[in-house]
């Protein structure tokens, strides 16, 4: 194919079956449609996991900020009503960071250039 050339999209074939309008697909088009539906389902599942990880990360950072502000105000270590102490919050950070890296996958820098279709 030459640079800049576009492949023509097939026009949908509209049919009527028992008075119901429908679109006819070839077996290849139907297989491609099923494949796309599976990919969209997998992406939706991954998006839910990323959203959950982001929420947990946000909760940790919010608690950490609260604890640090309480320590700064008192000037002598964690305040009694500040919630979890900074050391406890920081101890959970490495596992959360590792989970975020697993969920997010490789960064674009390490994954190389994006493939063009």
Short description:
This protein has 117 residues and is mostly helical. The chain is built from 3 helices and 2 strands, in the order E-E-H-H-H. It has a two-stranded antiparallel ribbon.
Explain what this protein looks like in three dimensions.
By secondary structure, the chain is mostly helical. Helix content is 61%, strand content 9%. The chain contains three helices and two strands, in the order E-E-H-H-H. The chain has helices at residues 27-74, 86-104, 108-111; strands at 13-17, 20-24. A two-stranded antiparallel sheet has the order 1-2. A hairpin with a 2-residue loop joins strand 1 (13-17) and strand 2 (20-24). Helix 1 (27-74) runs antiparallel to helix 2 (86-104).
Characteristics:
mainly alpha, 3 helices, rod-shaped, 117 residues
Layout of helices and strands:
Elements: E1 13-17, E2 20-24, H1 27-74, H2 86-104, H3 108-111
Antiparallel strand pairs: 1-2
Helix pairs in contact: 1-2
């Amino acid at each position: 194919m030459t640079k800049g050339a576009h492949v023509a999209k097939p026009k949908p074939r509209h049919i009527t079956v028992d008075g119901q309008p429908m679109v006819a697909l070839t077996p290849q088009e139907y297989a491609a449609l099923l494949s796309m539906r599976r990919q969209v389902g997998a992406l939706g599942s991954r998006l839910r996991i990323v959203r959950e990880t982001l929420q947990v990360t946000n909760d940790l950072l919010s608690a950490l900020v609260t604890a640090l502000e309480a320590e700064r105000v008192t000037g002598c270590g964690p305040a009694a009503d500040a919630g979890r102490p900074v050391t406890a919050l920081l101890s959970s950070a490495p596992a959360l960071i590792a989970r975020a890296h697993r969920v997010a996958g490789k960064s674009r820098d390490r994954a190389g250039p994006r493939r063009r279709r």
